[in-house]
Design brief:
Mean pLDDT: 86
Distance between the termini: 46 Å
Number of strands: 33
Largest sheet: 9 strands, parallel
Helix content: under 10%
Low-confidence stretches: 179-191, 318-336
Radius of gyration: 19 Å
Number of helices: 0
Structural class: mainly beta
């Protein structure tokens, strides 16, 4: 029998520049307890559970035989199952409002500018009134320079039962202060070479994102959501995104990261499954307006349903985006 052991946080754990925080489960073969990091009674911080500053690193690892948990609410139960595989129907979750945490808009359980590495971690039960509930790549509010974003890597992780206006599982915010969707030329060209889509990449490998709810109606949601001013590459490898619900556009992946005008940012799928997601508007599975690729192992986009256009994939303004001059203007859906 596995017994859960709680590690209670009284406030946000901030990893400062130049420091590295490592949290690991003891690999002793006799381990029969599972560690779960939770927010304590009286937790009132607005900056989430972990905040990783520029130039800092956070490592959280469970065992191959036992996951380590990060739980974003003090409630004793999870939201109901959204997708019923027998009836092939979706049910909007209810009752979560009483368990809202105190995270401010744009802060999740883990919020980062620096490096984040997680392995065999389950992030769950985070209910936020604003954007982002689980993992957030922090917004750049500095008008003078680009931040030195680090790499984010998740392996063998699960993000489930999270609620936010959008990006319930993952948000990559605008990493360029002045950039807005469809306009990526607003930053002084002198800083264009300072950013690195690969060096700041976000990679999910052997992960599952399931049963998350995005509450924003009449707008773009995405359980995974990027801003138009994001420039990090996003790599999804052997990852499943299923059974998520959006009141607006897209319950799966919204890819809107245009980067900057002299470097291309890309979303890459390798052996992934995006299935059984529901959105009241368009693009239940994928909603894209920037460069993306399906490569190597076959990926499946199936069983997604939307109230409007593009149940599987909705491609919006792929050509003619301001600042995209010189980028590929054709859509290649072949497997490479």
């Amino acid at each position: 029998t596995v017994r859960d052991v709680s590690i209670q946080l009284a406030s946000t754990v901030t990893v400062k520049k130049g420091y590295k925080l490592t949290i690991k489960m003891d690999p002793d073969a006799s381990w029969t307890q599972r560690a779960i990091i939770v927010i304590a009674n009286g937790f009132s911080s607005t900056q989430g559970m972990f905040l990783v500053e520029e130039g800092a690193s956070l490592v959280i690892e469970g065992l191959d035989s036992q996951w380590l948990g990060i739980k974003g609410s003090r409630n004793t139960g999870s939201i109901s199952t959204i997708y019923n595989s027998t009836s092939k129907t979706w049910t909007k979750p209810t009752g979560y409002e009483q368990y809202y945490n105190t995270f401010a808009n744009g802060y999740g359980m883990v919020t980062a500018v620096g490096n984040v590495t997680m392995k065999n971690v389950r992030m769950y039960d985070s209910y936020c009134e604003g954007d982002g509930a689980a993992l957030v790549v922090k917004r750049n509010t500095n008008t003078d320079k680009l931040l030195a974003y680090g790499k984010v890597s998740l392996t063998g992780c699960r993000i489930t039962n999270c609620v936010a206006t959008f990006g319930a599982a993952l948000v990559i915010y605008n990493q360029v202060k002045n950039a807005v969707s469809g306009d990526i030329t607003t930053v002084d060209p002198i800083v264009h070479d300072d950013y690195d889509p690969e060096g700041s990449s976000v990679t999910l490998t052997d992960c599952e994102i399931k049963n998350c709810y995005n509450t924003l109606s009449d707008n773009v949601c995405g359980t995974i959501r990027t801003g138009g001013g994001a420039y990090s590459n996003l790599y999804l490898n052997n990852t499943t995104i299923s059974g998520n619900y959006a009141e607006g556009t897209c319950a799966g992946v919204v890819w809107n990261a245009h980067g900057l005008s002299n470097k291309q940012t890309v979303l890459r799928f390798d052996g992934c499954v995006v299935e059984n997601n529901y959105s009241k508007s368009s693009g239940a599975g994928l909603y894209v307006s920037s460069s993306f690729e399906f490569c190597n192992n076959t990926s499946y986009i199936r069983g997604n349903t939307s109230g409007k256009d593009g149940g599987g994939i909705h491609i919006r303004a792929y050509t003619g985006i301001k600042g995209m001059e010189g980028y590929p203007q054709t859509l290649d859906m072949s497997l490479g």
